[in-house]
Amino acid sequence: MPVDSATPPPLPSPQAVTWDFRMLATGVVAVVAGMLLHADPGLNASWFHAVNAWGPAAPAIWSTLSVAGLALAAFIYLTASAQDVPERVAQLLWGIVLGGLTASWIKHHFPSPRPFLALGADHLNVIGTPLSAGSMPSGHGAMAFAMLAVLLAERRRFDERSAVGGWLSSGLGLTLLALLAFGIALSRLAVGAHWPAATLGGGGLGPVFGSLAPHAWPVGAMTRLLSRPLGQRLMAAGLLLCALCIAATPGLLDATGLVEKKWARNLLPGYPLAAPLQYLLALPALVGAVRWWRAGRRAPG
């Protein structure tokens, strides 16, 4: 998974970036399109089966892409080397919290059974743990495109100050992240977890929250905190915790005797075939913890 290793120059405040109305409009259009598709069950099911048929051919790839779309995974590879870009971290945290709360509210107030419950186990391909409730919207889709929107805002902020950003916000980095986002969205259909409408709706929420984040309260205060030793040490502790959580696989829980603990089992993402990615992501999380801790020691109190 790409990790930004370049050290960018100091950035302006998150409010310095102008509004990206095209990104905001794209998100709104995607949400509306998802709602319209949800209202057409026949078309929704047809598109689902078309993509779900790809699942058995590459279960490990689709499992890996699904885990790559977890908020925990996104947090690791967008923040592990972002100690010099606190704006990115603050905006991502805001998006995860507000976007997650919004998606959860929609799931609870507009119940939508997932394909496994609606179609039955014999009428779809399921990879990983079967999921039954809360299809609309897809949190993975929202997270995938929120990442892209946050980095596009970062690129926009650099361009407006004629500054040079890091690798992740470069043209190549953004292109690879866009491909990853689409892969994550498709994976939710391939593993049998979501309808196309849910993925489209979630994918629209990502750009909406990602484009709002640079201008949202309290992103500015969060950025200032993350620029100070206390915030940087909190980030170091957070990334250390992320490393432990993302490394939770069935094999590791069996080896450590934690498989009987409910709290430990709750850490499992439900895709055993993605275990190599989980171990791989634990490494940048640990390195990121060290980076942020060292930044906290260097920063003036």
Describe the structure.
- It is a single chain.
- This protein is mainly α and 301 residues long.
- It has a domain at 18-61 and 69-227: Vanadium-containing Chloroperoxidase, domain 1 (Up-down Bundle), CATH 1.20.144.
- The chain contains 14 helices and no strands.
- The chain has helices spanning 21-38, 41-52, 59-68, 71-79, 86-109, 115-119, 139-160, 171-190, 196-212, 219-226, 229-246, 250-256, 262-265, 275-298.
- The protein is globular and about 60 Å long.
- The two termini are 33 Å apart.
Strand content: under 5%
Measured between the Cα atoms of the first and last residue, the distance is 33 Å
Total beta-strand segments:
0
**Secondary-structure content class:** mainly alpha
CATH architectural label of the domain at 18-61 and 69-227: Up-down Bundle
Which CATH C-level class of the domain at 18-61 and 69-227 is it?
A: Mainly Alpha
Radius of gyration: 19 Å
Helix percentage: 55-70%
Q: Largest sheet, described in full?
A: none
Helix segment tally: 14
Shape: globular
Report the order of strands and helices. Answer: HHHHHHHHHHHHHH
- Low-pLDDT runs of 5+ residues are 8-15
CATH topology of the domain at 18-61 and 69-227: Vanadium-containing Chloroperoxidase, domain 1
- Global mean pLDDT: 89
